[in-house]
Write a structure and sequence with these properties.
This protein is α+β, with helices and mostly antiparallel strands and about 110 residues long. It contains two helices and four strands, in the order ββααββ. The chain has a two-stranded antiparallel sheet. A two-stranded antiparallel sheet has the order 3-4. β1 and β2 form a beta hairpin. α1 runs antiparallel to α2. It is elongated. The relative contact order is 0.17.
Length: about 110
């Protein structure tokens, strides 16, 4: 198992929208691969949504309901993208400081 400061924030939530974490020594395990694939899908969906949002915002004929739907979709995509960025950022080694090794993991994050 990984140490506490190496828990991976997964790209989905648990009950009551609480964050889910993975503790494993195998970055190629089933859950790690599933998380990687989910993150990839979330980022692709956010990119496609951005293209749609640009279309909607440049069309002066769009009604307020469509704008509301786009804003709701953007909120969902942004939340997923931030979760991916947070997860990946915490898995990056932080720069070594005096007295530390080169690849010291970041401190654990607190969510929720």
């Amino acid at each position: 198992m990984t140490s506490t400061n190496e828990l991976r924030l997964l790209p989905w939530s648990g009950p009551d929208d609480k964050p889910c974490f993975l503790s494993t020594d195998n970055s190629n395990g089933f859950l790690s691969r599933r998380a990687d694939n989910t993150e990839e899908a979330q980022l692709k969906a956010a990119s496609e949504l951005l293209d749609h949002v640009i279309e909607v915002l440049t069309d002066p004929e769009k009604d307020p309901d469509e704008l509301h739907l786009v804003a709701t979709d953007l909120t969902t995509a942004l939340r997923a993208t931030l979760r991916v960025a947070t997860s990946r950022g915490h898995r990056l080694p932080r720069p070594a400081q005096e007295g530390e090794g080169e690849h010291t993991p970041r401190r654990p994050m607190r969510l929720g």
